[in-house]
Amino acid sequence: MYPFIKFFHPNSKRPDEMRKASLEFYDWLSPRRSVREFSDQPVDKEVIENILKAASTAPSGANKQPWTFCAISNAELKQRIRKAAEEEEFENYHGRMSEEWLRDLAPLGTDEVKEFLTHAPWLIVVFKKAYDLEGTEKRKNYYVTESVGIACGFLLIALHNAGLVALTHTPSPMNFLKKILNRPENESPFLLIPVGYASDNAMVPDIKRKELDEIASFYT
Predict the structure, then answer these.
(1) pLDDT digits (tens, 9 = 90+) for 145-184
(2) Minimal CA–CA distance to 66: which of 187, 192, 184?
(3) What is the pTM assigned to this prediction?
(4) Using CA atoms, how far apart are residues 147 and 43, in angstroms rounded to an integer?
(5) Can you say whether the dihedral through the CA atoms of 87, 89, 94, 95 is positive or negative?
(6) Burial call 123-152: b when 16+ CB within 10 Å, e when fewer
């Protein structure tokens, strides 16, 4: 059993302060967008390290922390990833995707060309681990997809907080990432996230988020 320590919240607030802080946080986070047009301005490795540490504070099933973050700035590796991703995406856009899926994507203007994979100064590939390896012994992990998904949410918020932009990219199937990055048998690719500064002329679709009453139900 873990030793237990007294919990202390470093940011505890009164109800009036809480209302103000919750609204301010929403207003701060609301402009966050997925960006596909990156500047080649470099991002210091220490910034990426701090962001990954922030992502790793996410809760996980039985505290197994079933994630690995691979941070890539090497130009040759990024080019290999882009080539493999575009091959998969070509198949998606020219046969794998349903007509309905393609119609839903059309307003966003996306296609199989993924320039952001080489323009962004960093790629973060998130892997999930169904089990851990201790020597030759397998140790099962729990709620893996849920845990890694939460960590990715923390990661995106940490990137926004640092003044960076990102895109959650899923060039399915993604097994090429495991091969290119030589990851162990217990890891499976979950997300490919280009990271950096937005280019000076970056454009994003003028989309609207659903209203609160469309996404939430209250039982009081």
Answers:
(1) 999 999 999 999 999 999 999 999 998 899 999 999 999 9
(2) 187
(3) 0.95
(4) 27
(5) positive
(6) bbbbbbbebeeeeeeeeebeebeebbbbbb
- CATH number for region 36-197: 3.40.109.10
**CA 35, CA 41: separation in Å to the nearest integer?**
15
Domain segments of the chain as ranges: 36-197
Over the chain, what HEC string results? Answer: CCCCCCCCCCCCCCHHHHHHHHHHHHHHHCCCCECCCECCCCCCHHHHHHHHHHHCCCCCECCCCCEEEEEECCHHHHHHHHHHHHHHHHHHHHHHCCHHHHHHHHHHCCCCCCCHHHHCCEEEEEEEECEEEECCEEEECECHHHHHHHHHHHHHHHHHHCCCEECCECCCCCHHHHHHCCCCCCEEEEEEEEEECECCCCCCCCCCCCCHHHHCCCCC
Distance CA 151, CA 65 (A): 9
Between helix 144-161 and helix 45-55 the angle, nearest 10°, is: 140
pLDDT of the residue at 10: 87
If you average pLDDT over residues 73-92, what whole number do you get? 96
